[in-house]
Each structure stands twice: as C-alpha cells, then as structure tokens.
Give the backbone structure.
Amino acid sequence: MRTLAAAPSASAQSDAGGHWRESAEAVALPVLALAGALLAFGVFVWLSGRDPVEAWVLLFKGAFGDSFSWQNTLQRAAPLMLTALAVALPAQAGLTVIGGEGALVLGALACAALPMLVPSLAGWPGAALMLLAGALAGAGWVALAGWLRQARGVNETISSLLLGYLAIALFKHVVEGPLRDPASLNKPSTPPVAESLRIGGLPWDGAVTDVHWGLAWGVLLCLVAGVWLTFTASGFALRVVGGNVRAARLVGLPTLGLVLAGCALGGAAAGLAGAIEVLAVHTSANAALIAGLGYTGILVSFVARHNPWAIPPVAILFGGFGAAGSLLQRRLDLPDASVLVLQGFAFVLILAAEAGRGRLFGGSGGGR
Amino acid sequence: MRAFPPNPNRRDWLRTVGATGAGLATAGLPGLVLAQKPMTLGFIYVGPKDDFGYNQAHAEAVAVVKKMAGIKVVEEENVPETNAVQKTMQGMVSQDGATLLFPTSFGYFDPHMLAVAAKNPDVRFAHCGGLWSEGKHPKNTGSFFGYIDEAQYLNGVVAGHMTKSKKLGFIAAKPIPQVLRNINAFTMGARSVDPTITTQVIFTGDWSMPVKEAEATNSLADQGVDVFTMHVDGPKVIVETAAKRGKFVCGYHASQARLAPNAYLTGAEWNWVTAYTQIIEAAKTGKPHPNFVRGGLKDGFVKTSPYGAMVPEGARKAADGVKAAMVAGKFDIFKGELKDNTGKVVIPKGKVCKQTDVELESMNYLIDGVIGKV
C-alpha cells in the first residue's frame, strides 16, 4: 500500500533538486498517462469509423467547455470526493476497504429516516442533524469491517464488500417496507423531506448554480483529511499503523483504536455523501441512490494514490469523463460503453505510470 | 440555465451554410425549399439500447421516429436516475437545442424531470410511466403509458394451452402495482383455459438482476414449472435459461424470439411509436402538450409477438379470440367477483373495472391462483 508515507523514502537525495523532481513527477506522470489514454481512445474512435479529433473536441467541450459543462462535471465529482475518502482513510491504516457503497446507502437511509422519527426537524439545524445521522450510520458500518479485521482476523476487503451487499438489502427492505411512503406506488421511497431541510446549489456570480453544497463538503473534508494525516501526531500514528502494524504496536500505538478511527472517518464521509444525495438531489431515500457512487470512489482513491489532497482533482477528472460521455453519446452516437473504454485506458496508464516514478527528469532510476 | 447558449459547432455551421446555399440556389422557387430547422427530440434510456427489453422497446420506436421528416434525434443510454439525468436533459436542451424530451425511465419523473421542466418552461417533457396528474404537475410535462396487462393476459392464454405440469413461472422485479397487475392478468389468462393452473412468482428485488433471474428460472424449472414469463428490464437471461432447460417462455417489453426460437411462444410488447407520434405531432403543430396519454391493444400502444411455430392452432384461435374482443372493447380483465390468494374479495361481485380505472393503478394484491406474497 503506497500512502502518504511515500514522501520520506526519497530522502536519499533530499536536496532541493530531489524535492523539485518529486513534485514535478507527481504532476507530469499522470498528465502523460492521461495524454496516452486520450491518444489510445482516439485510435479506438477512429477504428469505429468516427473522427478522433471531433471526439477529443467533444470530450473537452462536454467536460470543461463552458459554464454548463463545468457545472455538469463538478456536480458529478461532488459525491465521488466523499466516497473516495471512504477508501483513502482506511488505506492510511493499511486496510483495503471497498464497502463505500454500503456506507453511502445506509447514510442516505439514516438521513431520510430521521425526520420520520423526529417530525419537528426544520431548517439548517435539522439538516445538520440529518447529515450527522448519515455520517454516523456510514461510520458504524465501515468501522464494523475494521473491527472484524482487528478483533477477529476477517479480511476487511471481503467483509466490507459483503457488508455493502447487506446494507443494500437492508436499505431496500426498509424503503420498500416499514419506511415506505404509501403514496410512492411504483417507485418505493421514503416520504419526501421537507422543503426547509433540503440543500441547495452553490452561489456563483450572483446566481445559484446546479452544483450543490456537497461539493464544498467534499473539497473541505479532503483538505482537512490531508492536513490531519500530514501535520498531526494522530494522523502520523495512523500512517505508522498502515506502514507496519508490528512497529506501531512496539512503540505503543493504540492500533485497534487507530484502525477503527480510520475506518469510521472513511465510512462517515461515504455516509455523508449518501445523506447529501438525499437532501440535495433525490429528496427521499429510494433505490435510485444505489448508482455505484461508492464503487467509483474506489477507483478515484486508487488513482489518487489514497492521497486526500489528490482526490478532488481526480474526482473532477472522473466527473468530467461522465459529463463528456454524455455529449459524446449524443453527438457521435457512440455507445455509452465507449466512455468506459476511455476510463479504462486512463486508469491502467495512470497506475502503470507509477513505474516511471523516480526515472523521469534524469532521476537515478528504480528509486521506488 | 438558458443563459448558456449552445456553442455553435462545426456541424451546425455546415448545416447553416448548406441550408443558406440551398436557399440561394432555389431562390427562384419561393416557398418550395424553405430551410426549415428540424425539430430536435431527446430520448433518454436508463439501460443499454439493446437489452432485449424495456430500453430496446423504446429504442426500436425511436428508430422509426428518426425516419420522420423534419426530425432530428439525440439519444443517451445508461443514464442513472440521479442528477446525472438532470444534466442530460438540460444538456439536450442547452447543447443540442432539443424542444421535446422523452425521459423513458419511471424514476426520472420525480424529482429529476420536474426540476428540469421548471427551469425550461418552453420545452416539452413526455415521461414514460403514467405519473402525471392534473393540477399537481406543470403543463409542459406529461406522461404516457400502455395497458400491457392485456398482452400479458394473452400470454397467459397461450401459456395455459402449452403447460403440461399446470405450473407457470413469473419472475418479477418488485411487488409494485404495475408488476402485480401483469402477474394477475397473466394468471387469469391461463386460468381461463384451465382453472387448476397456478403461477408461482419470484421477486428478484430490482429491475436488472441477471444472476438472480437465472437462479429463479432454474429453481422454478426444478419445481416443475414449464412455461415462464417475466417483468424485469431485460428478459434475455430468463428467456435463454428457460430455453436451455427445455421450457417454454412468453416474452415481455420487446420480442426475444431471436434468442430462443424454439421456446418462445409469444410475448407482450410495447408499441411506443403510437404514443411518440401523438406527442410529436402535437409539438409540431403547436397544439397543447398531451399530458395524459394512455392506451392498450385497441389503441396500438401494446402488441403481441408473432406466435412461435410450436403454438398449436387451438391456442392461437383462443388467444386471437380474446384479442379481438379486447380490440372491440368488449373484454374486461379485472371484474368481480375476484379474490386474492388469501381468500379476501378484492373486487366485489358485479363490479367491472375498465382498463382506464385508476383503482387498478394502486393494485396491491395477488389473485387466487398465484403462489407468492406481496
């Protein structure tokens, strides 16, 4: 597991040039990989009998071409930042958790259920409590996978995945059963949350955009997570656990507590994403929430190398793929799967580009 | 959102220049070639266009629409029922200039389509699923739907003739009114042939669950079921699995005959082009947007797949007879006295529910003869 702990390893050449090289590489490698992916995608488009240049132009226009495209991209990126944190934070403690989807749907469920239990909720304090309920539900769910691993030796990758399926089954059972709004005949949902509890769009240039406040939450939490991991003792302790559990125990770190904290905070982020989806987009909990945002978060986190500071730009890239795919389909009649082809090229190349670390810009080579 | 005008792209530019050229060239023939801008329509699917099911039924009708004069179509598939579909709708309006949108999945309606419709009062929205209600939803939105339970009844009649074990299987996504209505109609069709026939139903829990659908098919086949039908988004897996087990199958949404020609008896298909045409014509001629569009076999909103070669003359005749009565408006599926499978009377004696009866749209029971629980 390559984590933030990566930085000190280049200390052999810890002169100013080494630092420069490292930062330049951190940007140049993914950019080169992305360029390679676009090139490969162009060949794919050309082979399917369409103009690759037009496809590239549309990709850019669809993702970042104008204000509409930017809003489209950012709106798609917002939940991914939070679901990526659900992978990145446990990863700091050395755990590969892939159950963000389960934490997201349970967060949504807790958020939608709260006003049914406490009908007096209203305004921003009510919304804040609902977000908190969502975060707690997600935190508990992922912490369970962490506890199973620490206390019972259960592989957390498998258990978090299976807990995710359980969460989805539980979600459907509750939404289609006890908490179902009788008025939702053919689309079983919880009752819609009151107008005053909903989350609106971010203001920009004097107008309200389509990008909801979830984006601000995502960016903020990624920044906070990065600061915590880099500049605080507890954040460092978490990374020590991830680097070597035995060493951590030897120096007396509370490994169980740290692992649980990493998992719980990650789960809280995904649960918050679910709650925000309810309050900002769906207005009730229903099966449409199970849209794979938790799974896409896994990819975002891996491409960002589990670095919380890298998550927002990577999530925006993913959001851009989604937004651009929409335009590609409509203009070029390309099947939806073609965007998956581009994403596939991009991931494989970005991950493969890691091999070039330390070799670019005349480095000594094979440093990592 | 309309503040962002669609950027003129190369195609639009070529089209404009081309049209201007054509206009100049034929300037001597006034009114003959008016470079009329085609009307742009947007179609949005929740799954792949070639799913042998719900989405394909729409895509097949869109293929017909594409051939109409003065129409330009933009399409997007695999659009989830999240704010992604709001962006797709707005993109079709702002980037492609669409003036009439067909968001075809049930879950697109609330809150997504309503949200985009409120921002674009000049654009018409035609949703598939029958949710629009007068006074509650804006006039530039509407929904269309079909009484496909009629075709499922006919499926049942054919299945009733073909079954030897007297056990039929129905694999369904969720116990919601639309689905229950199909299960009940199918069972009544079969029991009109032989009242000892039962339908065993399995709910998979969601619209597209290929693994569970295959498991359900195998499990029912093991229990002696010999004719299958379904209500899931893509019936492909069920049709192929049933055929592999040597069982018969009645299709749903679109025709799956191609997947299993030796097992496919008939099927209940949508014929969306009828609804599309009504709505498009109204938009073209500037008439008010048809908000509430419904129809059954009689109106050409649904159709049946051609019979498979193995369906005997007697079965064809019986089904054709009922179909003729339905088309003539002389056949009602749901009429009293009707009991559910717990023995409770759900439609009292003497009462007849017409297809248009809204009471049927909140159906929450399985009738006598169905093995299963809501």
